[in-house]
């Protein structure tokens, strides 16, 4: 008989084994009722003389995926997770965690406090708290090193990665990996533990395995470099070091204190905002969550250029066959060769097996004729950015595709409505704007046109997730969201040059802020000829100052095309290392003279504010026009598309936070100046 102990936890007996089942969709997070229910389950175990052991198993897609993030914003209500863990740890009969899906964060901490862990093949375990700007707070840093070793625990805690069940078994985190029916396997495992004497095994009774202190310090240096600007990974090193030197109870208390402090830090708030915003972005404005995406089994990609190749590999990577369409056999052959070369690199580095490479390449076919793609479910058009050329492709596709096949354009700035209008069925037209290199970049701007069918929008979103991308739905807008905001930042950066700043100064300020690359180094990477062509296409619609701000044209005229010609805003050596070039100072001086600007000293603060505010102002216009549904969508776009530091929460999250901080600071300063003026008054 099943007994409900709390809204989300029930127990049932199977012989002398108590089966505690957690059922808290969608991911069995440790909400209040789960915490209370687990404590009740242990009480039921202790109170039932006939029950000799207990298994904890979860319904649905996963084992407990961690603390309930939605509860972080409110004061926590007892019992806290620590109490659950203490109760599990103090049990006098063995408890076995039965893991499927992912045991993450507090979920893994629950499992680590059990006597044994059994996992379904394919399950994963991890302590991903660091990704939310916090660290484990309920014994994870104390128990994991005792099972897996200090270095392994540090790697998992400081980077937040998940490891597969088989690896977890090898590392001592999991006792057994099974396939088939997990519940039955766990009951059988528990029965065996009982038959062997039913001993309780406490992880905290184990000693901390010996480790190399120098390795911890090396990790600290590597983490500081890899996670520049992030606080929690470095705190993880201190915490693990402390755990190795401190008795268990004290270490657990210190771990909890550290986690609590991090939880209220600005970085954690920002990272949690991004976590929530990425999930919110999957909800398409105006499209019911019940709308089913279409089934995408076969894809064609038109255009075997840089973007087409990258997009093709995204699909074959997840096992979807791709037909690549090009104008010539030679162009197609060179595309296939280029894709193969990328995989070969991965095989050499050991991140891909030769068999997997072969499997992926076998999913790739090419053709110059459209009639071979009549059975595909989706076509992504990635030809040159010319409206006429794209319209021609659309017409050819309309002629051969099934009525329910989707046509998506990868355009980065052309008008999606004009393209949709050329199709005989505008409801199947959408945009899927990948970023270069498409096989690497996480961001996918999915574009909706006025008539795009709801299930087409649901399909591009679901597909984005399947491809491992972070999809965000955007509306009609020149440059959509990412590039439109970028172009305003680029424009402001050039105005700063006119006012007296140098490319080095602007790039230094923006990289110190946290961007991976400054706007001028980025321009050199993109190519000045590309920048000049984009400028020429828009020049008639520019403000007078922008029209006359033709620094890019001057660089092109001087043969400075960026990295490709070893000179742009910087000069490059054979290893692509950038250096300052006095010739650029002269070019800028000449520009200022001609345009009537006098160079002045510009503060770093002015540079940062002008660049960021240019983006934020454009974002406000984008939101006003409805081209993005929510401010959080813009934060997701910038953190995934252009490396806006996630620990600052994105361009929309950050200004409101820093404005609040600044106004607090201002009132403190006002109080201070008031105090000075009062004390200095003649008495
Ligand atoms: N708490 C509450 N809700 C959560 C959640 C959590 N920990 N994790 C995921 N969800 C919700 C998501 O918001 C989403 O909700 P909606 O459908 O309403 O948008 C839903 O679960 C599904 O999430 P995903 O879309 O991410 O589903 P997925 O299948 O792609 O991934 C997952 C599942 C791997 C569990 C992923 O959601 C994930 O990584 N979650 C975060 C896990 C985590 O960070 N745990 C540690 C929390 S901190 C902690 O545990 C320590 C502590 O005590 C302080």
Overview of this protein structure:
- The protein is α/β, with parallel strands linked by helices and 683 residues long.
- Residues 666-683 have low confidence and may be disordered.
- Helix 8 packs antiparallel against helix 9 (232-245).
- It is globular.
- Helices cover 50% and strands 12% of the residues.
- It has an 8-stranded mixed sheet, sandwiched between helices. The chain has a 7-stranded mixed sheet with strand order 1-2-3-4-5-7-10, sandwiched between helices. Strands 6-8-9 form a 3-stranded mixed sheet.
- The structure holds acetoacetyl-coenzyme A (CAA).
- Acetoacetyl-coenzyme A is lined by residues 26-27, 29, 62, 65-70, 81, 102, 104-106, 128-129, 132, 134, 136-138, 259, 279.
The level of helicity is 40-55%
Mean pLDDT over all positions: 93
Main sheet attributes: strand count, strand direction, barrel closure: 8 strands, mixed
- The class by helix and strand makeup works out as alpha/beta
- Largest beta sheet: strand ordering: 13-12-11-14-15-16-17-18
Radius of gyration (Å): 29 Å
**Strand runs, count:** 20
Sheet-strand content, in percent, reads: 5-15%
Q: Quote the distance from N terminus to C terminus.
A: 85 Å
Chemical compounds bound to the protein: acetoacetyl-coenzyme A
* Low-pLDDT residue spans: 666-683
Number of helices: 27
Shape: globular
């Amino acid at each position: 008989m099943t007994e409900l102990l709390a809204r989300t936890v029930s127990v049932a007996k199977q012989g002398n084994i108590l089966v505690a089942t957690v059922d808290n969709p969608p991911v069995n997070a440790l909400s209040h009722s789960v915490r209370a229910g687990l404590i009740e389950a242990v009480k039921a175990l202790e109170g039932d003389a006939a029950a000799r052991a207990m298994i904890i198993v979860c319904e649905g897609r996963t084992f407990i995926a961690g603390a309930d993030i939605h509860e972080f914003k409110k004061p926590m209500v007892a019992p806290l997770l620590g109490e659950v863990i203490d109760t599990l740890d103090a049990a006098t009969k063995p408890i076995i965690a039965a893991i499927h899906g992912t045991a993450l964060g507090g979920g893994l901490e629950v499992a680590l406090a059990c006597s044994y862990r059994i996992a379904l093949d394919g399950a994963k375990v991890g302590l991903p708290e660091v990704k939310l700007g916090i660290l484990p707070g309920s014994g994870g840093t104390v128990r994991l090193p005792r099972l897996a070793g200090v270095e392994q625990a540090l790697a998992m805690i400081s980077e937040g990665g998940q490891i597969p069940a088989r690896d977890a078994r090898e590392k001592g985190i999991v006792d057994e990996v099974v396939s088939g029916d997990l519940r039955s396997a766990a009951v059988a495992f528990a029965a065996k533990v009982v038959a062997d004497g039913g001993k309780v095994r406490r992880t905290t009774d184990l000693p901390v395995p010996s480790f190399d202190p120098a390795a911890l310090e090396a990790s600290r240096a590597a983490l500081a470099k890899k996670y520049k600007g992030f606080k929690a990974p470095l705190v993880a090193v201190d915490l693990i070091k402390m755990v190795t030197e401190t008795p268990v109870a004290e270490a657990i208390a210190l771990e909890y204190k550290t986690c609590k402090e991090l939880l209220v830090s600005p970085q954690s708030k920002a990272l949690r905002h991004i976590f929530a915003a990425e999930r919110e972005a999957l909800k398409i404005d105006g499209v019911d969550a019940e709308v089913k995406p279409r089934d995408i089994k076969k894809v064609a990609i038109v255009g075997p250029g840089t973007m087409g190749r990258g997009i093709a590999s995204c699909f074959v990577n997840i096992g979807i066959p791709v037909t690549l369409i090009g104008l010539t056999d030679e162009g197609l052959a060179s595309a296939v060769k280029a894709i193969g070369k990328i995989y070969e690199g991965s095989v050499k580095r050991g991140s891909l097996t030769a068999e997997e490479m072969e499997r992926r390449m076998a999913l790739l076919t090419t053709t110059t004729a459209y009639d071979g793609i009549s059975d595909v479910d989706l076509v992504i058009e990635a030809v040159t950015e010319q409206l006429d050329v794209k319209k021609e492709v659309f017409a050819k596709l309309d002629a051969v595709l099934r009525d329910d096949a989707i046509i998506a354009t990868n355009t980065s700035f052309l008008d999606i409505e004009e393209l949709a209008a050329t199709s005989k069925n505008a409801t199947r037209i959408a945009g899927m704007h990948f970023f270069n290199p498409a096989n690497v970049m996480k961001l996918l701007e999915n574009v909706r046109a006025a008539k795009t069918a709801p299930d087409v929008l649901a399909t591009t979103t679901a597909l984005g997730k399947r491809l491992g991308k972070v999809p965000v739905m955007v509306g009609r807008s020149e440059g959509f969201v990412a590039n439109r905001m970028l172009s305003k930042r680029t424009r402001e950066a050039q105005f700063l040059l006119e006012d007296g700043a140098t490319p080095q100064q602007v790039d230094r300020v923006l990289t110190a802020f946290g961007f991976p690359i400054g706007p001028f180094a980025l321009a050199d990477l993109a190519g000045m000829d590309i920048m000049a062509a984009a400028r020429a296409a828009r020049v008639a619609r520019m403000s007078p100052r922008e029209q006359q701000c033709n620094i890019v044209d001057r660089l092109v005229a001087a043969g400075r095309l960026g990295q490709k010609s070893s000179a742009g805003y910087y000069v490059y050596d054979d290893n692509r290392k950038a250096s300052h070039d006095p010739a650029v100072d002269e070019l800028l001086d000449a520009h200022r003279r001609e345009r009537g600007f006098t160079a002045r000293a510009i503060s770093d603060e002015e540079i940062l504010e002008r660049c960021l505010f240019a983006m934020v102002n454009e974002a406000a216009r984008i939101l006003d026009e409805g081209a993005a549904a929510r401010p959080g969508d813009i934060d997701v776009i910038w953190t995934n598309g252009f490396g806006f530091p996630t620990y600052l929460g994105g361009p929309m999250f950050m200004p409101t936070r820093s404005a609040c901080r600044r106004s607090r600071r201002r009132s403190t300063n006002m109080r201070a100046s008031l105090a000075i003026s009062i004390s200095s008054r003649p008495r």
